[in-house]
Design goal:
alpha/beta; 12 strands; 3 domains; binds 1,3-dihydroxyacetonephosphate; binds iron/sulfur cluster; 4 iron, 4 sulfur cluster binding; Rossmann fold; 4-stranded parallel sheet
């Protein structure tokens, strides 16, 4: 609509005036993904979001995603102003891994290297030796295994189990999960696969192992998206949050994308594979944040500096 177009133009203008870019995750609203690119920012997986914001010269980074993503940017770029569209945009993995309990768990196993998923608080990152995202977890855990290190993994138990299976690394695990991906159902997916034998199955590793076992490609949002572009298949069954379909359809308008089932009945559930926190991001919140400067990320300097060490290890490893 014209009103929406005018709003987007206003937001782009404001970002320009404030030397700001919008960096977006694939799971947020389509309009925000488009606006991120128009602002000079990027739509990306969680590792690329962090690296992009870190390397970009803009002095303000606005994050369309969830809290841990904005905190990650702030940890890496303490001199930038980092804003989150909704301060309530959480993640079940972060919520399910409180620092005191996690730290006590680590204290019980002082001989182990602590590897945490990026979907955690700044405090948990500060307690860790390494931070990883889904796109680099396998490589880093393989590296640690080869060095003979034993691992404490947290918080996603499904991603942890997948890595353990792939690498054979010695890992003990915190029992967290993503409330979105844990809902995918293997039996129903198998029926769907049989109904569409020509489809490639793409799965995010936060899904249960039984679902991961049925995948043709397992990986981060970026990896899944790339597979949808590069594989010769014309049809894909996709087990991740449904925001990903925006870019998949943009890159491959002639291909068919089917949401993997989240209900045991075999019926696809249009609204199940949606992250309630990712869906808090919208144009109205962006407008409010630009008008008011609210939701700026502030992290205690001691915590930040410690978290930076474990995050930088990942960034350096990736380079
Ligand atoms: P990616 O790192 O694959 O983007 O996944 C992060 C995530 O779980 C966002 O919800
Ligand atoms: Fe967290 Fe899952 Fe939402 Fe990602 S999709 S932010 S892992 S709850």
């Amino acid at each position: 609509t014209t009103a929406e177009k005018q709003l987007k133009e206003k937001l782009l203008q404001q970002m320009k005036e404030q030397d700001a870019i919008l960096v977006s995750h694939y799971y947020v609203d389509d309009d925000l993904q488009d606006l991120a690119e128009e602002s000079g920012g990027k739509v990306a997986d969680s590792l690329e979001m962090a690296r992009y914001a870190y390397e970009h010269k803009a002095s303000t980074i606005i994050v369309a995603g969830v809290k841990f993503m904005a905190e990650t940017s702030k940890i890496l770029s303490p001199n930038k102003r980092v804003l989150l569209l909704d301060s309530e945009a959480e993640c079940s993995l972060d919520i399910g891994c409180p620092i005191d309990e996690f730290s006590a768990f680590c204290d019980e196993h002082p001989d182990r290297t602590v590897v945490v998923y990026a979907n955690t608080s700044a405090e948990v990152k500060a307690r860790a030796d390494w931070v990883v995202t889904s796109s680099i977890a396998l490589e880093i855990c393989t590296y640690l295994r080869d060095r003979g290190e034993k691992i404490i993994w947290g918080p996603d138990r499904f991603l942890g189990s997948y890595i353990q299976k792939e690498t054979g690394a010695d890992m003990i695990m915190w029992q967290g999960s993503c409330i979105v991906h844990e809902e995918f159902k293997a039996e129903a997916l198998l029926s769907m696969k049989q109904a569409h034998p020509d489809a490639a199955v793409l799965v995010h590793p936060e899904s249960p192992m039984s679902v991961v076992d049925l995948a043709d490609v397992v990986g981060s949002t970026s990896k899944i998206l790339n597979a949808s572009r590069e594989l010769p298949n014309k049809k894909f069954i996709v087990a991740t949050e449904d925001g990903i379909f925006h870019k998949m359809k943009e890159y491959s308008p002639d291909k068919e994308f089917i949401a993997a089932p989240t209900a045991g009945s075999g019926a696809t559930c249009e609204s199940c594979a949606q992250c309630p926190w990712m869906k808090m991001n919208d144009l109205q919140r962006l407008e409010r944040v630009l008008d008011t400067g609210h939701n700026e990320i502030v992290i205690d300097e001691e915590v930040r500096a410690k978290a930076e060490r474990s995050l930088k290890r990942m960034v350096d490893f990736a380079n």
